[in-house]
Automatic annotation (TrEMBL):
PANTHER family: NUCLEOTIDYLTRANSFERASE, POLYMERASE NUCLEOTIDYL TRANSFERASE DOMAIN-CONTAINING PROTEIN. This is DNA polymerase beta domain protein region. Pfam families: NTP_transf_2 (PF01909). It comes from Thermaerobacter marianensis (strain ATCC 700841 / DSM 12885 / JCM 10246 / 7p75a). InterPro entries: NT_sf (IPR043519), Polymerase_NTP_transf_dom (IPR002934). One of its GO terms (molecular function) is nucleotidyltransferase activity. Residues 21-60 form the Polymerase nucleotidyl transferase domain. Gene3D superfamilies: Beta Polymerase, domain 2.
């Protein structure tokens, strides 16, 4: 039996994702903020963890399941989950206490934001 154990280099992953988020904000006008949340943000990621990213969009006419198709994934050696929600959807989640915006607001790391957009959302 062969056992492989590896560890995620959190610092390297964060650096790569931060560069990607900054670039995404520059290239895509609809993106208001990119927030890392989950185990990678909290610092308790394991070898089986992924990168969870809340992408806050100014607005979108696309259904949720189609939004992520136009957003390239960051070039990192671990799985990535993108959660592209509009500002209005994030406001609803935070107000009603459900959805991915809640853990992102609680323990997320803001990787990039336009004009304090994330701060304004979580401060109500």
């Amino acid at each position: 039996m062969q056992v492989r154990v590896w560890k995620i280099d959190r610092g390297a992953v964060l650096e790569q994702v931060k560069r990607w988020a900054d670039d995404l904000l520059r290239r895509v006008a609809e993106v208001e903020a990119v927030v890392l949340f989950g185990s990678m943000a909290r610092g308790d990621a394991t070898a089986h963890s992924d990168v969870d990213l809340l992408i806050v969009l100014r607005q979108s006419d696309l259904p949720f399941h189609e939004r992520g198709r136009s957003i390239p994934h960051p070039p990192v050696p671990v799985p990535v989950e993108l959660f592209p929600y509009t500002v209005a959807e994030v406001e609803t989640m935070l107000r009603e206490g459900w959805g991915m915006a809640v853990p992102a607001a609680r323990d997320g790391l803001v990787l990039a934001e336009r004009d304090g957009a994330w701060k304004a959302l979580i401060s109500g």
